[in-house]
Design goal:
The chain is built from 4 helices and 12 strands. With about 180 residues, the chain is an alpha+beta fold. The protein has a single domain (about 5-175), classed as Electron Transport, Fmn-binding Protein, Chain A (Pnp Oxidase, Chain A), CATH 2.30.110.10. The strands form 3 sheets. The chain has a 7-stranded antiparallel sheet with strand order 3-2-6-9-10-5-4. The radius of gyration is 17 Å and the shape is globular. This is Flavin reductase.
Length: about 180
């Protein structure tokens, strides 16, 4: 078995999409940035994410039935940084977010978000893994902004200039 430092070093080099996750089971809302978000299944629509058990959001997530996963683009770097900051009130600027009719906080600048009902909570080492079914979503009509990824402790923009064209795959897709 490898040590935790070797494991973290390997995953630092693996780019991951960036999301802001919000929840409020009653009381004070929480928000945190995550790069552990993944689609699990399209039918039924399931997604998952994890959070460190040491996170200030972990206890709130154990009590909530629903969360909102904001899938961030490069234009949302400020939201990613807000969710990653320590010791700040992420909801202080009330002009940046609103509550859904069901109570969850949503940041308005995010073009794409999914509201999930939590189905499973799994303790996994120093983290908790959450799996939920998507019960509501928003994808803006013009949601074609450059992607935001995190790699090696740095934010990166994915856009047309970073695309790698693979002729065989592009040709095969055109013949279908």
């Amino acid at each position: 078995m490898i040590g935790s430092e070797d494991f973290k070093a390997a995953f630092r080099l693996h780019p991951a999409g960036v999301a802001l996750i919000t929840a409020d089971p009653g009381g004070a809302p929480v928000a945190f940035t995550a790069s552990s978000v993944s689609a699990v299944s399209a039918d039924p629509p399931l997604a998952m994410f994890s959070v460190s058990v040491l996170s200030s959001s972990a206890e709130v997530l154990r009590r909530t039935d629903t969360v909102v996963i904001h899938l961030l683009s490069a234009k949302n770097l400020d939201l990613a940084q807000l969710g990653a900051a320590r010791g700040v009130d992420r909801f202080a600027d009330t002009t940046r977010w609103h509550r859904l009719p069901t109570g969850e906080p949503v940041f308005d600048a995010a073009d794409t978000w999914l509201r999930l009902r939590i189905l499973h909570r799994v303790d996994a080492g120093g983290s908790a893994v959450f799996v939920g079914t998507a019960i509501e979503s928003q994808v803006a009509q013009d949601a074609d902004s450059d992607g935001l990824v995190y790699r090696n402790r740095t934010w990166h923009r994915l856009g047309a200039a970073s695309a790698i064209r693979v002729p065989e795959l592009a040709d095969a897709a055109g013949r279908r």
